[in-house]
Design goal:
Elements lengths: L1 H9 L1 H38 L4 E5 L18 H8 L3 E16 H9 L13 E8 L12 E3 L23 E5 H7 L6 E5 L9 H7 L1 E9 L10 E5 H8 L11 E6 L5 H11 L3 E5 H44 L1 H9 L4 H41 L14 H27 L3 H6 L2
Parallel strand pairs: 3-8, 5-7
Antiparallel strand pairs: 1-9, 1-10, 2-3, 2-6, 2-9, 4-7, 5-8, 6-7
Helix pairs in contact: 1-11, 2-9, 2-11, 2-12, 9-12, 11-12
Length: about 425
């Protein structure tokens, strides 16, 4: 080991560049591994804490679909699910659709200037996601907490209270922080909602005449189940009315979230509900996390390919440097062989030097990878507002560190093969006679 350390110390510049090259490759791979691990860990942790044990969608729907065909007869589902499976503690039908939101200030500007000429530049409605649900059906599910305001006035769905859409409208909405900030809305404010977009300022007044006013009864935090920072929460029937999904025989929702009293054997509940509702497809939490895992695995495969290229380049670079080191010390190595040092000992010296350089690269890679992962996570969190508290894109855990150690060990061993072979095969007599 002393001889190997002496070889590293003799050429500090070359050794430092070699360690840096190995460190950069190792840091890149560890950041990619930390990113995939972080997304998977956060998704698993938040999904487990959400209280969602099963998700029901329309038949023949895949969890990887970009859109979900509607589930019909949504208001009957909570009682239907609990009747079919007594282990169902709650079943909450959700209608998730895109809406356009606007505030009263823009309405006042549109009234003052019907042509739109007086509307300040940059003013306009905000596109966001609307969630229609029955508040009382969310028992056991982790929904966004209302931080300001009283929230919905009824646990049921008043507009559908008599089994039809003939009940009174509440015109209540809960906005998340992001949407409230964009609309400059507070509790008690009136906002306007429509499925129609606004083409130009000249159309603003007409847009408002066709939009529906809602009173803000609460402002909530972000919601991890929906990847958006601009959300509005409505009673299911009122969201359906906005979306035009209240025709006879429709009563639509996008998904049904199910919380079980005893989630120990969700596959049995999945089978019972699937049998009772053949028009639906029911997924367990394991199915959901499996879909997340598939996406992460695809990314990880891509990252692995990039990492392998980086590791190969680092190994080739280290091989070149070690070969140069052997050539520089060829007479010295020949002398050692001449006084009785075995070939295996000379080869071991080269391998030790390679592992020392790899260890230095590991220190650089771990430090750089940790800093890179921290900065990347900070950038992505700032880039995607509305993420729940505790969500992290990276996880720099023992598995990632262990992978880094394995990588640099492999680099060191691979890099030492050719230089070690060259060292043990040096012609002793020729090297000693060389000037």
């Amino acid at each position: 080991m002393r001889y190997a350390l002496d070889g590293v110390r003799r050429r500090p510049g070359r050794s430092a560049l070699t360690a840096l090259g190995i460190g950069l490759a190792t840091g890149l791979v560890t950041v990619l591994l930390a990113l995939s691990a972080g997304v998977q860990d956060s998704a698993s942790r938040l999904a487990t804490a959400s209280g969602v044990d099963l998700i029901a969608t329309s038949a023949n729907t895949s969890l990887t679909s970009t859109s979900f065909p509607p589930v019909t007869d949504a208001h009957a589902i909570p009682s239907g699910f609990t009747h079919a499976d007594p282990n169902v503690a709650s079943a909450s039908p959700w209608l998730v659709t895109s809406f356009v939101f606007a505030n009263s200030s823009l309405y006042a500007a549109a009234n003052a200037s019907p042509s739109g000429a007086g509307i300040p530049g940059g003013w306009g409605p905000a596109s966001g996601e609307g969630v229609g649900w029955i508040p009382g059906a969310n028992t056991g599910l982790e929904t966004p907490a209302v931080a300001k305001g009283p929230g919905f006035s009824s646990a049921g769905d008043p507009h559908y209270g008599n089994g039809t859409y003939g009940g009174p409208y509440t015109h209540e909405v809960v906005l998340d922080d992001g949407m409230a900030g964009v609309l400059k809305a507070t509790v008690g404010s009136v906002v306007y909602v429509s499925v129609q977009s606004l083409a130009s300022p000249a159309d603003a007044l007409g847009w408002y005449h066709n939009a529906t006013p809602f009173r803000v009864v609460g402002i909530s935090g972000p919601f991890f189940l929906i990847p958006s920072a601009l959300l509005g929460f409505f009673y299911l029937s009122e969201a359906q009315t906005l979306a035009g999904a209240t025709q006879v025989g429709r009563d639509e929702a996008s998904v049904v979230l199910v919380h079980l009293t005893d989630p120990t054997h969700p596959a049995a509940d999945q089978s019972a509900l699937q049998h009772a509702f053949p028009g639906l497809t029911v997924f367990t939490l394991a199915n959901i996390l499996g879909a997340v895992q598939s996406v992460v695995d695809l990314y990880r495969t891509f990252g692995t390919l990039i990492g392998l290229v980086a590791l190969l380049v680092a190994a080739l670079f280290a091989t070149t440097v070690l070969t140069m080191s052997v050539d520089d010390r060829s007479q010295e190595i020949a002398t050692l062989r001449a006084i009785g040092f075995a070939r295996s000992t000379i080869g071991r010296y080269v391998v030790e030097e390679a592992l020392i350089l790899a260890a230095l690269g590991l220190a650089v890679g771990l430090a750089g990878g940790f800093a890179g992962a921290f900065l990347l996570n900070r950038f992505l969190v700032n880039l995607l507002p509305g993420l729940p508290s505790g969500f992290s894109f990276v996880s720099y855990d023992g598995t990632v560190v262990g992978s880094a150690i394995l990588e640099v060990t492999v680099i060191g061993l691979l890099a030492a093969i050719l230089p070690a072979v060259r060292a043990v095969r040096l012609p002793i007599a020729e090297e000693l006679r060389a000037p």
